[in-house]
């Protein structure tokens, strides 16, 4: 699931312009998500803790827990749990809306604009988060996230990352730096 960053601008990279999800892929994502979402709070916390442990620079956007180092402390943070719930709810809305391109675009536009303009989060963190989500789902739900299901999720997150990047560009985002830690997995997978 890990990709290394290539030279140049990524032109010709199939992940830059993913094809639309097929009905089969959409159903695989929705079916697997329904089971994942039953453990919404625990999965959300696991995702954010993994993000912050593996990519500590991502904590800089969270004044409430940016100085917490220990995973156990992160797990027990009420603010982290609250944000994890928001992330999972946004993902749930996206997954439930996969049949409506307009609804998906609307959600991604709202998320992208708020993160670009209000929170000033570099869009690379959406790519990083996508990879972390795929890792956690693959580990925590290995019997559910088969290679075929994982491929559908990968395609979904490539679409999400591309859409978010487009929203950032529309919003006038100019900072396109990448964090140095674990840069080989910072691309959409």
TrEMBL record:
Q: Which UniProt keywords apply?
A: Heme, Iron, Metal-binding, Oxygen transport, Transport
What EC class does the entry list? oxidoreductase
For whether the record's keyword set contains Metal-binding, the answer is: yes
Q: What is its EC number?
A: 1.15.1.1
The UniProt catalytic activity note for this protein reads: Fe(II)-heme b-[protein] + nitric oxide + O2 = Fe(III)-heme b-[protein] + nitrate; H2O2 + AH2 = A + 2 H2O; Fe(III)-heme b-[protein] + nitric oxide + H2O = Fe(II)-heme b-[protein] + nitrite + 2 H(+); 2 superoxide + 2 H(+) = H2O2 + O2
Give the signal peptide, or none.
none
Query: PROSITE patterns, alphabetically?
Result: GLOBIN
Give the Pfam families listed for this entry: Globin
Q: Which SUPFAM superfamilies match?
A: Globin-like
Segments forming domain Globin: 20-169
Q: Which GO terms describe its molecular function?
A: heme binding; iron ion binding; oxygen binding; oxygen carrier activity; superoxide dismutase activity
Q: Where is this region: Disordered?
A: 1-22
Member of which family? Answer: Belongs to the globin family.
Q: Which PANTHER family match?
A: CYTOGLOBIN, CYTOGLOBIN-1-RELATED
What is this protein called in UniProt?
superoxide dismutase
The organism named in the record is Gasterosteus aculeatus aculeatus
């Amino acid at each position: 699931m890990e990709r290394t960053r290539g030279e140049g601008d990524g032109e010709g990279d199939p992940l830059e312009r993913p094809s639309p999800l097929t009905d089969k892929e959409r159903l695989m994502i929705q079916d697997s998500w329904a089971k994942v979402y039953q453990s919404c709070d625990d999965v959300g916390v696991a995702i954010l803790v993994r993000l912050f442990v593996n990519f500590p620079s991502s904590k800089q956007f969270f004044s409430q827990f940016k100085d917490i180092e220990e995973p156990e402390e992160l797990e027990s943070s009420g603010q982290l749990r609250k944000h994890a719930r928001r992330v999972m709810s946004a993902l749930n809305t996206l997954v439930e809306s996969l049949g409506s391109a307009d609804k998906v675009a609307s959600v991604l536009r709202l998320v992208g604009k708020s993160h670009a303009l209000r929170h000033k989060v570099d869009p690379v963190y959406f790519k990083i988060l996508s990879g972390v989500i795929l890792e956690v789902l693959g580990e925590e739900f290995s019997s559910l996230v088969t290679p075929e299901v994982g491929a559908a999720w990968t395609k979904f997150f490539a679409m999400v990352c591309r859409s978010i990047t487009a929203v950032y560009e529309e919003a006038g985002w100019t900072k396109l730096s990448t964090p140095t830690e674990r840069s080989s997995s910072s691309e959409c997978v």
